Amino acid sequence: MKRSALILFILFVPSLVLAASSDLINAAKKEGNVVVYSITSRIANAAKSFEAKYGITVSAHNLKDFELIEKVTSEGANKVYGADFIIAQDSGRVFGEIIKPGYAYSYVPPDMKNIIPKMYQDPLYFSFITKAFIYNSETYTYPTITNVWELTEKKWEKKFWFKDPLKEGVNANFLTMVTSPEVSKQLEAAYERHFGKKITLTTPNAGYEWIKGIINNQLVMFTSDTKMANSLGVKGQNIDAVALGTYSKLRYREKKNLALMPIMGMEPFAGFFYPSFLLIRDNAKNPNAAKLFIEYLLTEEGFEPWSGSLGTYSSNPNIKPYPGDNTLDVWSRILVLESPEFIYQNRTDVEEFWNSMIY
Question: Does residue 159 share a domain with residue 45?
Answer without folding.
Answer: no
